[in-house]
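stage 2 :: seqdesign
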């Protein structure tokens, strides 16, 4: 009898690199020497362990190790203290620790003693015990979000936190835990140490179980990664965990599988390939004996007579993805359909499993047939390209934005794959002038369609058009919402002699030199640099011209406000001479505020030349004799601090013209600019 039920084995099922490597090491040592033992079972699979015992290699505990033995440390790894103990016992150590586990050992051993290490996993598992054995810092193990939260409550805020996982931890649960750790401790160092093979195995099992009526997980009951596979699958369909074909037959004895149409098989990292094959064969036998189906002669004859030809569009069901990344398809004839990787997609960043999945129905074009061998070569990307070009053409008409992946840098531009179509983007439309096209490879980009040639099925696009549209939209929004006096952030785009241009997001604003700082500066670059993010206040807006004037200097830093709050007439101050004129000297009271010491107020005698008494840079003590805040004018006197009776100003010098320090400063700045 034939059955409609299909059985699919996950591509990733079986030994991972670490397990395979550990077994090769053990069997290699057995071929070269005697007295080889493993520190604990080499893997969690009694069939393999029993086979090693038949070859003379038994599993021992640390207490059982004797001098002269060759001791193989299994893939799970052990703590640092175990290595020391083995050396003391005189054993030769052969380390088969999985490279992924060794990486975790290095991470945790680098943590200082006053920090905390969080480990996601099973506290009783040998791998976790080995990881803790490399921790110099305090360590905690959790296997759920609740346990993690309880630990986080008790960690002092003064301790740094590092988080790792057992290599076989549940990937989805870890994502939740990572978010919890990061939200609680922003400074935490979180490392993704789930084995990539484990993550792939769990992902494939999850995908398979979503379609299956029954999932079979092959592996040992005491294998952590095997149990995780069962947890992943059982939320989506009925799931059995069996160690071998005999156990599968016992579990399914008397079961009604007549309505079962899809069975998935996956296996833990410690399940040998021949055991997986035996389980697959046993499952097939059970189905064929359990489900009765009448043979439809007419239907089978129709399949034999059904003709297909090159260029024909057909539909097929994906039945398998091989190790060589070939996709096998059932197209409803006696032919076996193949889609080679180059005919699946133009996107080099995607694997076959990213494009199609087992059980999926896909549209295809027949490329080549071989009736003698019963095979047909098919293309998915040609169908996708035809349908995709319609989307490309529509995007041009509707001016919509498309998303694609940069697959190649060519002379004069880039090739972007989108909707199964290769779109050419000229360099001038791809990167800023002087940019490197190679830096764009494999990046996901948004772009617009500029030209379409339907006859040649060619299209030209622009990445910069999307950026320009976004900038124009941001500019329009800015002038709709911004007001004089608003404080906003922007990035310094360029610097000139007269000011600084700031990118406000769609709009460039200008901070003139006088609005950069209250201090007298030689050049705007003395205050800011290109690339700086600064906070500015809008001084003026002109939507018609698109010009925006900005102020960078802060009111709170206004030297006149500082002076007003801290100085008064009659106060004695220490000042520094900053310039000398024919009528007196200007002295710096605080940054940005200079006062005038009139020539008549320098000494108790007639002074013909200011430079005879004072020099630039000289520090003197003077008295504030007058403050005019409206005119920004301050008068100082050295003479006022001389002995009483000698401070009368003679008529000869009383007629000297008083000039505002601020007016003089403005004249100097004007000449500089």
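stage 2 :: out
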């Amino acid at each position: 009898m034939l059955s409609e039920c299909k059985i699919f084995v996950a591509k990733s099922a079986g030994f991972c690199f670490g397990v395979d490597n550990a077994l090769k090491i053990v069997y290699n040592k057995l071929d070269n020497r005697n007295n080889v033992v493993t520190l604990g079972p080499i893997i969690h699979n009694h069939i393999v362990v029993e086979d090693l015992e038949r070859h003379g290699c038994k599993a021992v505990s640390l207490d059982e190790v004797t001098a002269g033995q060759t001791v193989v440390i299994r893939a799970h790894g052990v703590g640092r203290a175990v290595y020391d103990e083995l050396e003391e016992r005189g054993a030769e150590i052969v380390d088969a620790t999985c490279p992924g586990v060794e990486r975790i050992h290095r991470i945790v051993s680098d943590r200082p003693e006053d920090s905390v290490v969080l480990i996601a996993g099973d506290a009783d598992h040998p791998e976790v015990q080995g990881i803790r054995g490399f921790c110099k810092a305090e360590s905690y193990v959790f296997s759920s979000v609740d346990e993690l939260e309880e630990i986080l409550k008790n960690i002092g805020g003064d301790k740094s936190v590092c988080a790792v996982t057992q290599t076989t931890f549940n990937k989805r649960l870890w994502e939740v835990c990572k978010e919890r750790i990061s939200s609680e401790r922003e400074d935490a160092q979180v490392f993704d140490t789930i084995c990539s093979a484990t993550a792939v195995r769990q992902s494939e099992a999850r995908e398979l179980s979503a379609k299956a009526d029954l999932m079979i997980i092959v592996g040992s009951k005491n294998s952590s990664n095997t149990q995780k596979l069962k947890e992943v699958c059982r939320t989506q369909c009925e799931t059995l965990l069996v160690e071998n074909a005999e156990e599968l037959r016992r579990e399914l004895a008397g079961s009604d599988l007549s309505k079962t149409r899809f069975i998935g098989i996956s296996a833990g990292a410690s399940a040998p390939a021949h055991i997986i094959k035996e389980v697959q064969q046993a499952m097939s036998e059970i189905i064929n004996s359990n489900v009765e189906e009448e043979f439809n002669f007419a239907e089978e004859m129709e399949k034999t007579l059904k003709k297909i030809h090159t260029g024909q569009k057909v539909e097929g069901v994906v039945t398998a993805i091989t190790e060589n990344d070939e996709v096998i398809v059932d197209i409803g004839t006696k032919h076996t359909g193949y889609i080679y990787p180059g005919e699946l997609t133009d996107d080099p960043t995607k694997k076959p499993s990213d494009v199609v999945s087992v059980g999926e129905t896909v549209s295809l074009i027949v490329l080549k047939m071989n009736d003698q061998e019963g095979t047909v070569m098919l293309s998915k990307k040609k169908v996708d390209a035809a349908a995709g070009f319609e989307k490309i053409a529509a995007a041009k008409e509707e001016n919509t934005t498309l998303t694609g992946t940069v697959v190649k840098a060519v002379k004069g531009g880039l090739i972007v794959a989108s909707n199964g179509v290769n779109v050419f983007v000229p360099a001038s439309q791809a990167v800023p002038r002087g940019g490197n096209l190679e830096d764009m490879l494999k990046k996901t980009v948004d772009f617009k369609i500029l030209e379409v040639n339907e006859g040649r099925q060619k299209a030209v696009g622009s990445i910069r058009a999307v950026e320009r549209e976004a900038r124009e939209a941001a500019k329009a929004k800015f002038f709709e919402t911004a007001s004089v006096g608003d404080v906003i952030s922007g990035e310094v785009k360029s610097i000139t002699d007269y000011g600084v241009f700031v990118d406000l997001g769609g709009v460039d604003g200008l901070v003139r030199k006088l609005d950069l700082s209250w201090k007298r500066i030689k050049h705007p670059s003395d205050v800011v640099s290109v690339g700086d993010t600064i906070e500015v206040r809008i001084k003026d807006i002109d939507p018609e011209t698109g010009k925006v004037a900005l102020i960078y200097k802060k009111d709170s830093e206004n030297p006149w406000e500082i002076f007003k709050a801290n100085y008064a007439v009659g106060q004695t101050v220490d000042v520094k001479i900053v310039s000398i004129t024919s009528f007196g000297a200007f002295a710096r009271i605080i940054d940005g505020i200079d006062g005038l010491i009139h020539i008549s107020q320098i000494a108790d005698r007639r002074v013909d030349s200011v430079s005879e008494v004072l020099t630039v840079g000289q520090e003197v003590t003077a008295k504030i004799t007058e403050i005019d805040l409206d005119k920004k004018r301050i008068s100082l006197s050295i003479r006022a601090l001389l002995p009483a009776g000698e401070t009368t100003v003679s008529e000869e010098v009383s007629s000297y013209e008083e000039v505002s320090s601020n007016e003089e400063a403005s004249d100097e700045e004007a000449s500089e600019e």
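stage 3 :: structure notes
- The radius of gyration is 40 Å.
- DSSP finds 18 helices and 32 strands in the chain.
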